[in-house]
Design brief:
The chain is an all-beta fold and 813 residues long. The strands form 13 sheets. It has a 13-stranded parallel β-sheet with strand order 2-4-7-10-13-16-19-22-25-28-31-34-37, with helices on one face. Strand 40 (476-481) and strand 41 (484-488) form a beta hairpin. It starts with 38 loop residues before the first strand and ends with a strand.
């Protein structure tokens, strides 16, 4: 079995992946970009002070505080105000390392071009050169005495942070929002100091916040480490997670070749809660070739509906060789799968030396995850690296365990049971449909596969229809001898046949020996007929070999492993017509590495009331106006490369043609005064207005509080509109022209009544009636609508029914 080795090991790397694409439709508010023209970049800003004062005149192109020095904070402020990419270097005099103690968070938010903070520019700093550890010399330490949230906040794209150590009793780095794409973190120490002596005292406090690197609310295609040893990060000593990737808009990030949980020299354990956490719908992130050891919780957590992520080639719980572990390197678990995590990939990892389970599936409503080619309790060279619990503790549905080595684990191989549930958010559903195929088991107490610890031992193959995997029983052996085995199983089931072998120095299992009890390797499978009879011929069935059997029913449920049976020297039984092996399972192909970030060079322009933009091949372009005060208003999505727009100080156009946000910002003409006698009126669901010769009219809804919100655009002089307290129509033919009109008033004797859970009202001839609930404080909230004259409603202090046949009519009861 091949093992995908992390880059920090001197051994070979093996990996095989295809590509898969998830489509995600994202449409969210986009952070504001100032329209005032910033100062041009004045070349690299060189920090020469450990102070924390701000810049005396941000935007003048000179990094200078009131004291005449350049601090890191002043350099960041100048970079944010400077057009285009910027670089922040260091040239602090005197012996290092130099500690910069910050009193408030640093913020990178220049959307005109990325900023590089290069700690390795400090004289005396040196990048890592070790293939197994982290021996870099870090000259710049950023710390704080306060629990800042976070210390470094990044809200823009294409920034690079390299060669710094950042630590303190709060979050270290956060990437926040959909503009924080394509950032790179290379050669840093995050959460502890380079010696590994600092650990956050906030362990267990604000669990979701005390993170080394957090990606929240939409950052895509960010990189934490690369295959180059100089780019490896150490991420340890954080109060909760080393890296946390969060929310469905956050996707396609790469965490590669880092040391997560240990000190750079691998001798210390500045504990953090967990290594890498993926949750809340985030998708297609790529966790590859990391050493994830020494974490108080799991090495990798897949939870809360995260989907299609790939965890490949990592060492979890071991040292850098993948063959040894000690009390410093253990995590609690290797991988945890919970809270509806589905269709994720755990491939070619070494998971050993952890003090609980190697892989733990917590909830029954996780499903469809693929666990392939891993060594669970076994080192790369076959060294025993047993986990303190089960190799795999599994609940959930439709997972595939294929071609793994599972050995040496204290409680056993694979334990299958049902999660009992704890309320509506954690339902109790059966564990079912999980397939364990072609795996290698050895040095495992009890059966290789144990279902609910019930110890199946009957020949009842048809009536076991409750519990995990329907309590499917293992196959029975009726005849066995050199070259053939046969017996009975459930009708139509597939019977997996395993024999003993011997582990070789390269970690492979040699089934051609007569060694007993040293391993169990898959040699073939055969399908039972409708009555349950099965038979297999194989030259691997030789005298003194030990046989183990597992059944898999047509629904994918896997049985316990049958108690071992030794092949006798002569055939025992009277079987005939030996069957042939069905052959190996075709392994599914995991998604490949996500696409690299592409710089944002999308452009737009305004002329004569028309906004135009480059053709990027997108199905839709999303347009917003930008006001002088920075406020933005969404206009809508457009399928072409231009549209008529209202006058504004600026415009933003966003498209997702390449799978991530590409943004164009351009100037507009600004507002023009309204000098017309423009008017509008509402009647029976239709809003009408006077013809001002405009190509487009923009309709806004006005609520009872007088607040307006954009509804739609029209090219004529009328539009069907939803009920509203009032309306506003705007156009820009010759300047900004706006008119307002009421939605109508209550002019009818409209009435309602409530009895036995049903609300009824008089028939006013409306196509739709809208029902609101009124609480004891008199506050009403929308409940539902009806096309008739009644609706079943929950108990409430009162009710309100509205319609708009000829104006706004309200009945209360």
């Amino acid at each position: 079995m091949g093992v995908h080795r992390p880059v920090f090991s001197s051994r070979r790397t093996i990996g095989r992946f295809g590509r898969a694409l998830l489509a995600l439709v994202l449409l969210a508010a986009i952070l504001v970009v100032p329209l005032a023209g910033p100062a041009e970049a004045a070349g690299p800003f060189t920090v020469n002070s450990t102070g924390d004062d701000g810049d005396s005149s941000p935007g003048d192109g000179v990094c200078r505080t009131g004291g005449g020095v350049c601090t890191l904070r002043a350099a960041v402020e100048e970079a944010n105000a400077s057009a285009g990419p910027d670089t922040i270097n260091f040239g602090i005099g005197g012996g290092g390392p130099h500690v910069i103690d910050i009193d408030d968070q640093l913020v990178l938010n220049d959307r005109s071009g990325g900023t590089t903070i290069d700690g390795y520019s400090q004289p005396g700093a040196r990048v890592n050169t070790s293939p197994d550890e982290f021996n870099a010399s870090i000259g710049i330490h950023i710390t704080t005495d306060d629990a800042l949230a976070p210390m470094l906040l990044i809200q823009s794209a294409a920034n690079t942070v390299r060669g710094i150590s950042i630590y303190g009793n709060g979050p270290r780095i956060e990437l926040r929002g959909e503009d924080a794409d394509g950032n790179r973190f290379l050669g840093n120490v995050i959460g502890t100091d380079p010696a590994g002596d600092f650990a956050s005292s906030a362990v267990g406090i604000h669990w979701s916040l005390n993170v080394g690197i957090a990606m929240n609310l939409g950052p895509d295609q960010n990189v934490v480490g690369t295959a180059a040893v100089a780019d490896r990060n150490v991420i340890s000593g954080n109060g909760s997670y080393g890296v946390r990737i969060n929310h469905g808009e956050t996707s396609q990030n790469v965490i590669e070749n880092n040391i997560i949980g240990l000190s750079g020299d691998l001798t210390k354990n500045p504990r953090q809660g967990a290594g890498i956490d993926l949750q809340w719908y985030t998708w297609r992130n790529y966790i590859v070739d990391n050493l994830i050891s020494g974490n108080g919780g799991q090495a990798v957590d897949l939870s809360h509906s995260t989907v299609n992520n790939v965890v490949v080639g990592n060492y979890m719980g071991t040292l850098a060789d993948g063959d040894s572990a000690n009390s410093t390197t253990d995590n609690r678990w290797g991988v945890t799968v919970k809270d509806n995590a589905h269709n994720n990939w755990v491939v070619d990892n070494v998971i050993g030396g952890n003090w609980s389970d190697g892989i733990w599936h917590k909830h029954n409503y996780t499903l469809g995850n693929n666990v392939l080619n891993n060594r669970i309790g076994v080192g790369v060279d076959g060294s025993p690296l047993g986990n303190g619990g089960w190799g795999v503790e599994l609940t959930g549905q439709d997972d595939l365990y294929l071609n793994n080595i599972i050995a040496n684990n204290a409680d056993g191989g694979i334990y299958v049971h049902s999660y009992l549930g704890s309320g509506p958010n954690f339902p109790s559903v059966p564990t079912a449909g999980n397939r364990f195929l072609e795996n290698t088991f050895y040095d495992t107490p009890g059966p290789y596969v144990d279902i609910d610890s019930l110890g199946q031992n009957s020949n009842d193959f048809g009536d076991r229809d409750t519990g995990s995997h329907t309590l499917l029983n293992y196959p029975e052996i009726s005849g066995i001898g050199p070259g053939q085995i046969y017996g009975w199983a459930c009708g139509g089931c597939t019977v997996e046949v395993y024999v003993s072998g011997q582990i070789q120095t390269d970690g492979t299992l040699n089934t051609n020996t007569t060694a007993r009890g040293e391993g169990a390797a898959w040699i073939g499978r055969v399908q039972a007929d409708g009555s349950g009879y099965w038979s297999l011929a194989s030259n691997q069935l030789r005298a003194d070999k030990i046989v183990t059997l597992i059944a898999v029913d047509p629904a994918g449920n896997t049985s316990e492993a049958r108690t071992e049976r030794t092949v006798p020297s002569s055939f025992l039984g009277s079987g005939s017509n030996p069957g042939q092996s069905l052959g190996r399972t075709t392994a599914p192909t995991a998604p490949g590495r996500p696409p690299a970030y592409a710089p944002d060079e999308f452009t737009c322009s305004w002329s004569g009331g028309v906004l135009s933009w480059e053709n990027e091949g997108a199905n839709e372009y999303f347009v917003r106006t930008i006001a002088a005060d920075g406020g933005e208003t969404y206009l809508g999505g457009f399928t072409g490369t231009g549209t008529t727009v209202p006058n504004a100080d600026g415009y933003r156009v966003v498209n997702w043609a390449q799978g991530f946000a590409r943004t164009a910002v351009c100037d507009g003409p600004g507002d023009q005064p309204d000098t017309s006698t423009f008017s509008c009126s509402y009647a029976n669901g239709t809003l009408s207005w006077s013809d001002e010769g405009a190509g487009t009219y923009y309709v806004r809804l006005v609520d009872d509080a007088g607040d307006d919100s954009y509804h739609a655009a029209a090219s004529g002089t009328s539009l069907s509109v939803p009920p509203s307290a009032g309306y506003m129509v705007v156009h820009w033919n010759g300047g900004r022209h706006a008119t307002t009109c009421p939605g109508g008033s209550d002019t009818t004797a409209f009435t309602c009544s409530h009895a036995n859970g049903t609300l009824s009202w008089t028939d006013e001839g409306a196509s739709t009636y809208y029902v609101r609930l009124v609480d004891n404080a008199g506050v009403d909230s929308y409940f539902g609508s009806s096309t008739g004259t009644s609706l079943d409603v929950p108990a409430s202090a009162g009710y309100q029914v509205l319609h708009w046949v000829s104006g706004r009519s309200v009945a209360t009861c």
